[in-house]
Sequence to fold (183 residues):
Amino acid sequence: MPSRSTKKQFILDCYRTHRWERVGREEVGVVEAELRHVLGPATKTSLSYIANVLREAGARVDYEDRYVDPWMEEPYASRLKGVLQFGDLAAAEASLRHLDAIYREYLEAADRTGTRLVRSLAVKGKQRAESLAANPRVSEERRQAKQEIATWFRVWLETPDLFFEWLELRKQSEEFLRLYPPR
Fold:
């Protein structure tokens, strides 16, 4: 790989070279192996990163894990791109409000594909937050916040009609105020 080329560019070049119609676990593994071969055995590139790069470039990627966004066709892809955010509690709440608004629009239009995709994004948010909450390399304070966020996504998935009332009560609870004092 030339020094001016990026890992992302190498992934895209590899995809173009192989001319795959679809990319599954095996193809993602091939790209990862070729990256390791070119950059050295110490190079670590997650399969999720490779799948996300290819999907973002428009490839049909049939590879799923908690760090890979679900494949979406248009107009869903444009509408839902970047909606899932949970860097902190405020971002998670804003993301859930946005997801909920889109979900309600799709529900009103009886768009099963749209509602399914919104729910799948919420599941990804819950899974990713749970993963960060369980990661010992993440600070205790951040793990605690991610566990709170995972709970928010879980409650929304279970009871979307009651979620925002529940969230307001949760944010007024003694436990929440102790853990996350107002600033």
